[in-house]
Amino acid sequence: MQTFKACFSHDEKLWKLRKITRNDEDAYNDVKEVVIDFYQDLKEIFQVAAIQYGASLDFDMTSFRKFCKDAGILNKQLTSSVLDTYFKATNYEEIDQENNDDNAIIRFEFLEILVRIARGKYIDFGKDKRLDYSMTKLVQQHIMPMSSKLWHL
Fold this sequence. Notes:
mainly alpha, 7 helices
């Protein structure tokens, strides 16, 4: 449990979730709770997917785009070019991070980009009003089903 808390605490310090929630403290805390609820599974899915799609412990843009395609995330509104924009915004480092490749996302950025995708896929197109509900929907409908697929790739 200590390792879990330490990993999450580390990730939370580095993500740009407050910007995505537009500094709405309630929205931030609600989305944070969703991430905590799914954190262990998301962490494991990231580790396995990053290796299987990219052969390392991070995702470059091409391998992440393939992961999203396989997860059924992309559609007419959330296209590859929109995903690329989210990838670049997520990967932008406000403070240079020595062990964070400028062309790939690592674990905390994976969590952050999922929140960006949830906003883009559900809220920006009027399918939902709350980011925490959108994040839950994204994880349950697209990310969690990938765990069984990943073990069979």
